[in-house]
Design brief:
This protein has five helices and three strands, in the order ααβαβαβα. It is globular, with a radius of gyration of 13 Å. The protein has about 110 residues and is of the alpha/beta class. Strand 2 (about 65-70), helix 4 (about 75-80) and strand 3 (about 85-90) form a beta-alpha-beta unit. Helices cover about 45% and strands about 10% of the residues. It has helices at about 1-10, 20-30, 45-55, 75-80, 95-105, and strands at about 35, 65-70, 85-90.
Length: about 110
């Protein structure tokens, strides 16, 4: 929810999901230009979500940023190998989020 408020304050209109399944459904319905996806979700993890999204042709080119507290080098490597475009470690500074979003939404 906090990330949604932050995105709104940056002038974006976020669509929020609370579970991996919601993320999949919302991404397919809304065809976003950018996805911020947590790794630790209550039903299926973000790795499984991105693997499913990347199988859908329109979702292959959508930048997807992992937003997570998992910060070990092996966690980052696993995310990048799974198909994430970038990685944002929680807690993060708002200017870091803003710069990363701007990078992908030019």
């Amino acid at each position: 929810m906090v990330l949604g408020y932050v995105m709104e304050s940056l002038g974006h209109d976020p669509v929020l999901g609370r579970t991996g399944q919601e993320a999949l459904t919302l991404a397919i319905q809304h065809k976003p230009r950018l996805i911020l996806l947590d790794i630790l979700l209550p039903d299926i993890n973000g790795i499984a979500v991105i693997q499913q999204l990347r199988q859908i042709k329109p979702m292959r080119r959508v930048p997807i940023i992992a937003v997570t507290a998992l910060a070990r080098p092996s966690d980052i490597q696993q995310c990048m190998k799974a198909g994430f475009s970038d990685y944002l470690i929680k807690p993060f500074m708002l200017d870091r989020l803003e710069a990363m979003v701007a990078k992908y939404l030019r």
